[in-house]
Amino acid sequence: MADDYPIYLVDDDDAVRRSVGFMLKTSGFEVESYVDGPQFLKESRSLQPGCVLLDIQMPEMDGLEVQRELKDRGIPFPVIVMTGHGDVDVAVKAMKAGAVDFIEKPFAKETMVEALEEGRETISQTRSRSARKERAQLLLNGLTPRERDVLEGLVAGYPNKTIGYDLGISARTVEIHRANLMRKLDVHNLSDLLRIAFAAGLGERED
């Protein structure tokens, strides 16, 4: 468990870091502790993917701000927020911002482990999507530039005639390129073709 699922505990309270850290280590987790958000964020880009156990009430930078900064930096670590009594409204804000779960202090060991396992599942899903994307992109690397152009037109939902017009070629030539790229990708229908294209990231909106 510790090899592939580190826990990053961010809390300004020494007693909490000691007690929660001990509880998690005795449960088989690898734990790295941070005294505040800025310290954690400073190292975040070099860290192995893991779950962030994040206190909400911290003086210099609160948990919501840390969570927002992680998202802005494109670091997709699952976040579980720890709240004190009466902070449920803040926890709801964290959940709406993408937190996996929240737990209220004091919490039972079982509650903590259950939340962390939910975070682990999120990481597994992210890794699976990443692997599918890499495989799909490798497949698309075997296409010619023109075949890629045709595929992008299909992803956009255009018929052969429209794709041909946009590319300055005939609809018949588009059909030939379409047949060739389907053969190269080893698919037999448009649905499977588009599935590979979407997995590779084609058609994603650029902000």
The computed structural class is alpha/beta
Average pLDDT taken over every residue? 87
The CATH homologous superfamily of the largest domain is called: Response regulator
Low-confidence blocks of residues: none
Helix content: 55-70%
The radius of gyration is 23 Å
Report the CATH C-level class of the largest domain.
Alpha Beta
How are strands sequenced across the largest beta sheet?
Answer: 2-1-3-4-5
Continuous helix count: 9
Distance between the first and last residues' Cα:
37 Å
Domains counted in the coordinates: how many?
A: 2
- The general outline is elongated
Main sheet?
5 strands, parallel
CATH topology of the largest domain: Rossmann fold
Spell out the helices and strands N to C. EHEHEHEHEHHHHH
Total strands: the figure is: 5
What is the CATH architecture descriptor of the largest domain? 3-Layer(aba) Sandwich
The share of residues in extended strands comes to 5-15%
